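We treat protein structure as text, and this decision shapes the records that our systems exchange. Because each token names a local backbone shape, the row as a whole describes the fold. For reference, a complete record is included directly beneath this paragraph.
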Amino acid sequence: MKETPKYVIVANRLRQQILEKEYQINEQLPQETAIAKSLNVSRITVRKALDILVNEGLIYRIQGSGTFVKDNQPGEGVQSKQSLEIFDFNKYSVKLINFGVSKPSLQ
């Protein structure tokens, strides 16, 4: 049986800390080197873990500033996709009532 990769373990730990509100919305996460040192892993491992969380929409990066907790509910992207799947678009139709294009005058 394969051992879970370290970057997945680090991502799970950071995800749990974010979900448990150890890091507040828009709060900066510690630097990659600080996380790596505290978890006894390489900075590259931390970087891969942060990439996972960026892809999940939990955090965002600003080059030269750091990594921050995103201002949304955890898994919001997944929930909104599920809500779209629940909403049955076949029950509704769209009827275009009026459409026009106007040019601004050259006054």
User: Anything to note?
Assistant: The longest helix spans residues 6-19.
